[in-house]
Amino acid sequence: MIVLGIDSSCDETSAAIVRDGRECLANVVASQTELHARFGGVVPEIACRAHLENFPWTIHEALQRAELTLDEVDGVAVTNRPGLVNALLVGVAAAKGIAFGRGLPLVGVDHIVAHIHASFLAEGGPPKFPCVALVVSGGHTSLYHLPTPTEHRLLGATRDDAAGEAFDKVARLLRLPYPGGPSIEAAARDGDPKGFPVPRTSPGKDNLDFSFSGMKTAVLYKAFGQDMRPKDAKQIEPRVPVADVAAGFQRAVVDVLVKTTLRAVEQTGVSDIVLGGGVAANTLLRERMRAAAERRGVRVVVPDKVLCTDNAAMVAVSGWFRLVAGESDGLDLDCHGRPVRAARV
Ligand code: KG4
Ligand code: ZN
Q1: How far, in Å, from the CA of 61 to the mean position of ligand 1?
Q2: What is the distance between the alpha carbons of residues 234 and 334, in angstroms, rounded to a whole number?
Q3: Are 334 and 93 in contact (CB under 8 A)?
Q4: From ligand 2's centre to the CA of 311, what distance in Å?
Q5: Which of 275, 289, 309, 314 gets mutated to test ligand 1 (max ligand atoms within 8 A of its CB)?
Q6: Ligand 1 nearest atom to the CA of residue 168, by list position
Q7: pTM for the complete prediction?
Q8: Domain 2-116+307-324 falls in which CATH fold?
Q9: In the chain, where are the structural domains located?
Q10: Which of 54, 100, 276, 339 is 20 to 30 A removed from 310 (C-alpha atoms)?
Q11: pLDDT (tens place) for every residue of the chain, 345 residues total
Q12: 164 contact partners, CB below 8 Å, separation of at least 6
C-alpha cells in the first residue's frame, strides 16, 4: 500500500510517500526557518501562507522522487491535530482535495502519535511491543506506554514548558538564533557543562511528569543576575561564557529526560524505548539515552534526525495503520489545535 503523507502542523511544509508503513520512498520537507527567524519564533499567519505556496511543489516533488504518479497512491494521510490550527487547515485542505479528486481514502493523524510511529522507519527495525515512548518536541514532552503500535496510555507529561520550548527560550536569552535547540547544541560543543551546573527539577518521584520552567529561570538568574527579567537579560551579555551556559543547560535537560524515561521503563518492565520529536535530534540525548538503556539491557529505537523533526513520512506511517485496518475519515474531517488528550494512567 502506497500512502501519501502530508504535514503542516507548525512551520515545516512536508509531503512524503511511504510503502507499506515501513519503506520511505520520499520525504520532502520545506523549512520556513528563514521566514520566522527574525521574529524569534513561528508566526502562525506567515506559516499558513507559506504552506499554501509550498504544498503544490512539495507534493509534486515527493511523487517525483518516489518515481510514482498519483494513480499509484492508495491513500492520503494528513496531520489534523494538534498544531497551529490555521497551519493545519492548509494541509488538511490539500489532502481533502487530492482524496476527493482521486477517489482515495483519507485519514486524519495525530501529530504526536506520528512522532512515535516515525520509529517504524528507524534503522534496525521497529520497536518491540509493549514499549515506552518519549515524545520531546517544541510543543510536547510526554511519556507513553504502548501495548501495541496503535494503543497508547499517557504516563507523564510536562507541567509547564515543553523541552524544545525551554531550549528555544534559553537560546533567545543567550541571543542564539532560532530555532533554539540546534543553536544550543552547536554552542554547547565548545562549552563545559561543569562550568555552569543547572539544578535538575522534577515534579516528584511519585510520578513521571516533567518541569522545565524552573530550569530555564535558574539559567536566567545564574547567568544574568538574581531577579533579572527575561526582556532585560536579552540586552546584556551573560556573566559566564555562552558555550558553558548552553552546555550546562543541555546536560541538565538531557539528564532529566533520560532519568524519567528509565523510571518509566522500570515501572512498566518493557524492553524497548522509542524516542521521537524534534528534541530527539539532539546528539547528547540520543547518546546518553542509548548508553543508560544499554546498561539495563534495554534497546532505544530512534529514527534518523530528519525523521525526528517535523516530517510527513511519519504521518504516512501513522495513517497506514488506519488505512490497512479499513478505516477512513470523511471530507468533513476537522482540525484540532490542541492535543486530544490520551488517558492518563
Ligand atoms: O517536532 P518538532 O520539529 O516540532 C514540533 O512538533 O514542535 O520540534 C521542534 C523543537 C524545537 O523546539 C527545536 O528547538 C527542537 O525541537 N530541536 C532541538 C534540536 N533540533 C530541534 N532541540 C535540541 N537539540 C536539537 N538538535
Ligand atoms: Zn512535531
Answers
A1: 25
A2: 40
A3: no
A4: 8
A5: 309
A6: 14
A7: 0.95
A8: Nucleotidyltransferase; domain 5 (3.30.420)
A9: 2-116+307-324, 125-302
A10: 100
A11: 999 999 999 999 999 999 999 999 999 999 998 898 888 888 999 999 999 999 999 999 999 999 999 999 999 999 999 999 999 999 999 999 999 999 999 999 999 999 999 999 999 999 999 999 999 999 999 999 999 999 999 999 999 999 999 999 999 999 999 899 999 999 999 999 999 999 998 898 889 999 999 999 999 999 999 888 888 887 888 999 999 999 999 999 999 999 999 999 999 999 999 999 999 999 999 999 999 999 999 999 999 999 999 999 999 999 999 999 999 999 999 999 876 544 443
A12: 136, 137, 138, 139, 141, 180, 181, 277, 278, 279
Nearest to 262 by CA among 284, 287, 295: 295
What grid cell was written down for 289?
A: 539515552
Domains 2-116+307-324 and 125-302 belong to one CATH topology:
yes
- Centre of ligand 1 to C-alpha 139, Å, is 9
Answer whether 75's CB lies under 8 Å from 86's CB.
Answer: no
C-alpha cell of residue 137: 518536541
